[in-house]
Amino acid sequence: MSSDKSDDPEWQRRPAPRSPISSARCTPYHPGSCLVPESLAASSSCSAKASVMVNHLAVASRHGRVMPPDVLFDILLRLPAKDICRFRAVCRHWLSLTSEPLFIDARIARQQGPLIVASFHGDGKHVHLMDSSGRVVKRVPSMEGLALVRSRLDLVCVADMEGNCSVIDPVTGAVSHLPNTPPELDWWGNIPVTKDDSVFNAFLLGRVDSTGDCKVLRLSRVERERTYHLISCVLTLDDADGVQRWRPTGRPEFIVNTHSGVVVGDAVYYFWWTAMYPDPEQDQWDLIRKNGDVPDCIARFDLEAEKWTTISGPCLLDGQDVWTEYFSMLSKSSTLAELRGNLVLAHNFSSRSLLDLWFLIDTESCLWVKEYSIWTEQVIPSFMRIVKPLLLLDDGRILIFLGHRPGALFLYDPSNVVFSRLDTAYVDEVGLYTGRVLSLQSAIKVQ
Amino acid sequence: MAAPESGDGNNGAARMVTLISSDNTRFEVEAAAASLSQTLQLTILDGGGGGGDGIPLPNVDSATLSKVLEYCIKHAPAAANGGAPNATAVDRAELERFDNEFVNIDQSVLYSLIMAAHNLEIEGLQSLVAKKVADMIKGKSPMEIRRTLGFPDPTPEEQAEMNAHMLEYGWAYE
After folding, report:
1. CB < 8 Å from B in window 310-369 of A
2. What keyword terms does UniProt attach to this protein (chain B) (predicted)?
């Protein structure tokens, strides 16, 4: 029995295969690489089954039943990146198989869903594309001094408050610098913004589903004579006439918090800016009190029609007669996000250690549904206000960005109620990249 | 030799082919279903397996072949539709339900299926079983995998490598 060759582990028989191997299909065949049972007892539960299966792998090895390397390749390819990383310690054969460029490329090509785009804290020269386990798959040169703009597209946008904005195509590396023409105060009779005015710009990039046009929304907050004004402009990338220029649009009914923006489909959403209206009940009640029970505290910009409207938020409190408290909740402990194609309001109820995720199920009727109420005591300190959900993975886990310049990425697993931090550097800002990862040429191993 | 009436197998009533398992059981099945196997496809296109002839499959026993053909018959219509781009959500859900049931099987059968799908090159089935096995080994520790694969206990040097890996990639072990 013990002399059966198929029983030998490869560590004893093969030299260390540290050198890269050109093709997995050429991997030296090793019978011990994956062995499967000859006959197994059936088992009812799935997890029990898995352990029975693996137990019988050992039995099977004595029978010499082996799995072809192609099949092992195919199986390992389907594992989450984290398991692949761990299984590299199983033996050198598994290490070499999973380290080959062919395997890595195939694994990236299989990548489900979008990649994470992140600007790492202290690295202003690049943005990094990572898979959902935090593994960097590409590093893309960026404009130093410009910060990543959160988006969910096959393009990456970087910008600063001074009005500089560039759009990068991570596949080709092509960079498009948008014109930095100052906004005009059009409702004041086209008085150009002067040097005396303090102007703060915020950008968001989205795509119109029906036409495929990419549009950048620029919101400029102008302070003049101690009053704030918002100027809203859009620009179409690759416009038909070949000229990229900012077109003024109408403006939102109220001053929005320009930090709060998020793109969902072909609409952009912003919160009401509470700091602007210290007492909403007295100052601007008519602006926000619409038909429903909850005031319209979210401004919506339709990228296709280029029109602003407002919608109401979810019912965060049971008795909502204290609107000041409601607006304080919005500004201090809530963020807007996009999950599963829905607008999501993430409310960090820190006094109860709960992160509530409200999904806007129906835009027309402003129907909000609280789909998640996440227990956050161990992970989110009560002073932490910036909690942004980023992505819902296929397996149900939620990728969450926590903190602010820098922050960190966490995965929340609702079935086990577990948070785990992604193994990445600290990040200043994150977004998603939905482009074709196949065309990312090759994976770059970056620390 | 091709039976003359087999034609191209593309016209008229569904053309049937016969497959013979390693234990000499004959299976008559539509050519379209058997053609999901890349290995068999060329033989069938050449007119093989029709009439009194059969295609011998010395590596596949009758129990496994019957299971494989169950899969092929179920998936043949969608495959004929070019991956069924216009399949309804209901159709797709039904296929998915079938697939889930299909691999909910005893592991010895699963192993036979892995080998058969590999030898016959049935792409959809290969993916299905690979995914099943991946789901089964997901979450295991390297030591669990080693022990159960019958590797001897690691030497101090191997153990040091494993420890170093765990230290470097702690997140993957959490």
Report:
1. none
2. Ubl conjugation pathway
